[in-house]
Amino acid sequence: MFIFGNEFFDEETGELNREKLSAVVFEDSKKRAQLNSITHPAVGKAMFKKVVSHLFKGEKFVVLDIPLLFESGANRFVQKTIVIHCNEEKQLERLMKRDTVDEKVAKSRIAAQMPLKEKMERATYLVDNNHGKEEAEKQLTEIADELENSWLPFIIRSVFGVTVGFLILSIFKIIF
């Protein structure tokens, strides 16, 4: 059974028509939930693989850009969260410009998400994006510096390494 049929794909290229799909899922919460149930598991697996890859490469921390972090429950798998916020007028204006949509469509997309105020209450760090890109970058640099000086990644990596080591030894004992 197809939830989203061929009408959402370009006949010639086979590419997804994001605008058409967006128009449906942002107006129908049930369709949006169905789409999320299809996409989130695959996206989650891909992100997990990337994070583990970066851990093995010795990266101190990994930044994930997850628009529905709290809504999807993915916040359970991260240590720190950053919410970049601006006032409602700027949010609406920027969304309309970015997605080239009218005010009604932009408002429906914003309404389909958790209120920004609630995300801000749940965040570890807040970045005020009302005063331009340079100011936001300055705030992000301060956060990155704080994270860079933290011992938490070392502790997590140590626990991860010991756990992987025990798993490998257990498998090795079973095989031999």
UniProtKB/TrEMBL annotation:
Residues annotated as transmembrane: 151-172
Q: Name one Pfam family in it.
A: CoaE
Q: Which domain of life is it from?
A: Eukaryota
Return one GO MF term: ATP binding
Keywords carried by this UniProt record = ATP-binding, Membrane, Nucleotide-binding, Transmembrane, Transmembrane helix
GO terms in the biological process aspect are:
coenzyme A biosynthetic process
| NCBIfam families named among the record's database cross-references | dephospho-CoA kinase
Output this protein's name: Dephospho-CoA kinase
Its source organism is: Panagrolaimus superbus
